[in-house]
Amino acid sequence: MSKTSLAAFPLAALLALFSAGCRQDMHNQPRYKALAESSFWGDERSERPAIEDTVARGQLRLDAARYTGKVNGQDVDYFPWKITAADIRAGQERFNIYCSPCHSRLGDGNGMIVQRGYRQAASYYSAKLLKAPVGHFFDVITNGYGAMPSYASRVSADDRWRIISYIRALQLSQTAKITDVPAPVQAQLKAGGPATEVPVADTPTARLNWAPPRSVVDNPGHPELPAPFSGEFPPAYHAAEQAPAAGGQQ
Ligand code: HEC
What we know:
This protein is an all-alpha fold. It has a domain at 64-182 and 198-215: Cytochrome c-like domain (Cytochrome Bc1 Complex, Chain D, domain 2), CATH 1.10.760. Helix content is 41%, strand content 2%. The protein contains ten helices and two strands; from the N terminus they run H-H-E-E-H-H-H-H-H-H-H-H.
């Protein structure tokens, strides 16, 4: 080390000390802990009440069918958006995590927890559940059913629909006939080979009312809200619409 750099050392150390002090000040800025008292506002609360008639970003739940599975108190019998193969796969993953411990990966109700003594879970192949509208499944996952607890806090509303789409696929897997698949795929299956994936519109899943034509915004309780936009979208919007955003947060 040269003489000059040795002389500069204490200065550098001092500077480092000061700048560390500044950093601490920036880290510990004045702030309130949640629900702490404050003398600043008249009501002595540090929290400000939500402003009337405002909704936090991402919390708008206008589509009753999508967030409750019901319209006018009736279970809906359609999915709130057009289900894609990716949705069904995501549903399978969520199903295997949250439902299979009791319902088993096959959905016959004999999961490991049931084998170890938990109350018998429902089989999705009962005549009742084969006929049950998808809104009923949404209700069961959201609110629980008999001995089954609610999964609302662990499974988001959109993931519930994805799980239900997978349950429909499970049901089809046990009840479909070979004539339900398009002719070219029938030939592949008869030859014992793997079948190629076909677009949803060509398969029996299309018969499960995946997405009937309906208005995007379903707000019968709020006639004061503006009607959904019905004019021409600028070209850039169309591009965004084609992104795989189906099923995302509203
Ligand atoms: C801790 C075990 C357990 C888990 C996990 C579980 N269930 Fe259940 N489920 C049950 C039991 C037990 C029943 C039968 C309830 C009864 O008869 O009291 C049932 C019944 C049902 C029914 C039939 C309701 C009816 O109308 O008869 C459906 C549908 C269902 N579960 C779906 C699901 C889905 C979807 C998941 C995953 C999100 C799930 N369950 C996770 C235990 C479970």
